[in-house]
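cron nightly-structures :: item 1 of 1
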Amino acid sequence: MMDISARLAALMSVLGHSFEDPGLLLEALTHSSVTKGRGKLKGAGRDYDRLEFLGDRVLGLVISEELYHRFETAEAGQLSRRYNAQVRKETLAEIAREIGLNDYIQLAGDLREAGGLDNPSLLEDCVEAIIAALYLDGGMPAARQFIEKNWWPRFETMGAAHKDPKSALQEWAAKRGLKPPVYTVVAEEGPDHARIFTIEASVKGCESRIASAPSKRAAEQMAAEQILKDQKNGND
């Protein structure tokens, strides 16, 4: 098995950036389960929480600017839907898997054995932390290069500007003079690193639908989509 220096060097090759401060990259890969009891030191003694905070904002700025210039005739609502599609948890988790980030994340053994490296929230946070590490080490050009490589091909995918199911269902209800959909948490199960949320979506006059997913938002979207399909196939 490669030592940590060799592993970091391999990841730098994947990221396309040679870090002047490898400690930043290691920090971006370190989950809080590894640093418990060590305090908030720099580098190996610090988890990626602070970097995730910064990376989220850097990603948001770069994506927003690109959408603004790329789709010059798009209305604000269309830009927002495209933006949400690019920064949602599922997109970031997908990118993490595509670049093999799972192989580098520093995670406590018990969480690893429980499937923590498949947790979309963990993968999302780590990708955002990587973006922050690139930004702090190489400035905006380094962060932008990574984002361009992994996000730009997704801009033209079909449905990128379509309404998400929750927005579409709310609009459907409003057109019919109905109150907005109501989403209720039916169950919340599993360990903290792998929670499963079960959500019930309801609209007056429609059959309620229930869906489960690793996040409340994803479960809500799935339940809303089921109601929309009901209406399309039935009494719409």
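cron nightly-structures :: done
Strands lie at 182-189, 196-202, 209-213.
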